Amino acid sequence: MYKRILEEKIKNDFFSGKIIMLLGARQIGKTTLVEEILKKNYHENDIVFFNWDYNDDRELLSENSLKKLGLYIEDKKIIFIDEAQKIQNIGNTLKIIFDKYKDQKQLIVTWSSSINLLDLTSEPLTWRKIVYMMYPISIWEIKNTYDVKDIYSSLENLLIFWSYPAVLNKTNITDKIKTLKELSSSSLYRDILEFQQIKNSYVIMKLLKLLALQIWKEVSINELATNLWVDTKTVDRYIDLLEKSFIIFRLPPYFTNKRKELNKSNKIYFYDLGIRNSILWDYNFLENRNDIWELWENFLITERIKKNEYAEKYLSKYFWRTYNQSEIDYIEEYDWKLHAYEFKWWNKLVKVPKSFIEAYPDSSFEVINKDNFLDFVL
User: Fold this and answer.
1) Segment-wise mean pLDDT, segments of 10 residues, the chain, 378 residues
2) What structural domains and CATH numbers belong to the chain?
């Protein structure tokens, strides 16, 4: 059990007059976190738990009426609804409960997908919610369990098996691989198959494999469509659904000079490298791999995103590349300034591209390698 960063934040928001909504991929520990908060702070008799997987719960929460529901929640302080994205009319149901009990009860809801989230909740829950994004385990969350030497010595393991709780808790490689295979099956994107009328998972799986093979390259939608034998609209839709299921995320290019800087394609990364490696069935250690640079870049960007999100540091994220192949791996824009980072596995001298400095003279530039990466992610 790792102490999650969001635990104190969520606990402090209880009874603040808002619905607490916790978003994140399946199997990252959302339910466990909520249960841990409730166990530490409230008596079990004060809590009512609803889950879409239970038929009775599904019917109660879909009726948009307090007549039956009130019998279950009237004497409770905490109403916990798990996997709310599956419940029909959930936005209206939450509004009805909130409007009647907002000063008496705390509603907390988990979502494993942001598909249709705004459609379900935007109008009914305007000004009524606090939303938290939760990720798989972060370096921030293991630093209190392991010292710096442990993290450095585990780095190879992190690039291959990181960072789902069920994988981290396994002590041997065989069990880690078995768990990752289970996670990277259709269970991670079950909502896409169930609720988006996609009956054949073959195209989704093949798309994920193609994306896993090019995690540090600009992604061509046309090329993906050709390889998948589908149209570009279908590829765009599937990528959007995978992103809303918190499996992948897009990194756009930064540009101001459209004549010199590429501006067409995003890069796409995985929120978890263990899932990415499992999709490729590649669990080899680094000495037997030719994708160390890709793994390293994906790992650093993902951990940086977790750090910034949990620290409530909101900024814009990009990569940069020109037509003459000058490039920078990662850029953050905040405080009216560009902060550029180049990722290298080894500690080697790297100069900032001259064209970047000329275009953005007030920007900063830093090389991140395996000797100094903890400063970047912590």
Assistant:
1) 91 95 93 96 94 78 75 91 82 86 92 71 76 94 82 91 93 94 78 68 91 94 95 93 93 82 84 96 94 96 97 94 90 96 90 92 95 93
2) 6-133 (3.40.50.300), 139-310 (1.10.10.10)
